[in-house]
Amino acid sequence: MSKARLMIVEDDPDISNMLRIYFNGQGYDVDLAQRGSEALEKTRQVMPHLIVLDIMLPDIDGYEVCRTLRTNTRTSHIPVIFLTQKDERSDKLQGLELGADDYITKPFDIEELKLRVQNAIARAERESLTDPQSGLPAGRLIEDQLRRLIRQKGWAFMDLRINYFDAFKDVYGFIAANDVLRFAGMLLGEVVDTLGTANDFIGHAGGDNFVIMTSETTAGEIRQQLKTRFNEEVQSHYNFMDRQQGFMMAPDDSGKMEKSPLMSLAVGLVSPSTHTFADIREITEIAAEERRLDAAASNG
């Protein structure tokens, strides 16, 4: 499993650097932000598994940062632990009402904070809220979003899968494979941010399988740009020889080495104008079939 990613939002450099050093030593990837606006921008670029958020910030306060995270479809699932000087009951209640997962008061016990971070991340994964590798919404959150989607108009659903991912993992290993999943999640976020809206949803259904829920009007362009950019940019994950020859040698089921194409992205796209759906199961099944047809067409 890849390292969990923390974002520390704290304008006191002594505290933020201390937390970065400590949590790096505990095996976390740690990113720092000194301002609320910086935290929101960084969260859009790379999804953290958890945010430790100071309430008193120089631009917008932590309450506003949390409110913005909770009202954005793509960040509403991220666990937030408030870190503050305040110890008033009303302040704690305000944070919890906004959807914060926990609250710790300065000066704090670093071991206690570590346990709260561990518990919040474990709870999110146990409840199928987030994927442990990408930090993106997973199982139950995807289902909840689909149930909302099917009652609306003008939506589109995309089922995305990375072709030849397993062969890449067999040859290059788990760490390199996790880097590809992280790259894919970041790419989905970039393209949807550019062409879609803040209400669009990106989920990680598990393994090499992702989903996007967006509007019917933008879905086609998002699909095309994702396929083009992924197929080009994923090549940086291969060594020079594999890139140059356009394939790699990978073991088949019997262990015999054979040519395997470089990874590419297959995307199945469905919407109410292309199909009729009775329930969310039909949305996912038909989209998966469209994705398999897309993969077959690419291979052909």
Automatic annotation (TrEMBL):
A biological process from GO: regulation of DNA-templated transcription
Cross-referenced Gene3D superfamilies: 3.30.70.270, 3.40.50.2300, 6.10.250.690
Residue positions, PTM 4-aspartylphosphate: 54
One example GO MF annotation: transcription cis-regulatory region binding
Origin: domain of life: Bacteria
Keywords, comma-separated and alphabetical: DNA-binding, Phosphoprotein, Transcription, Transcription regulation, Two-component regulatory system
Record-annotated Response regulatory domain positions: 5-121
One GO cellular component, as annotated: protein-DNA complex
SUPFAM superfamilies, per database record: CheY-like (SSF52172), Nucleotide cyclase (SSF55073)
Keyword Transferase in record: no
Domain GGDEF residue range list: 153-300
Protein name: Diguanylate cyclase
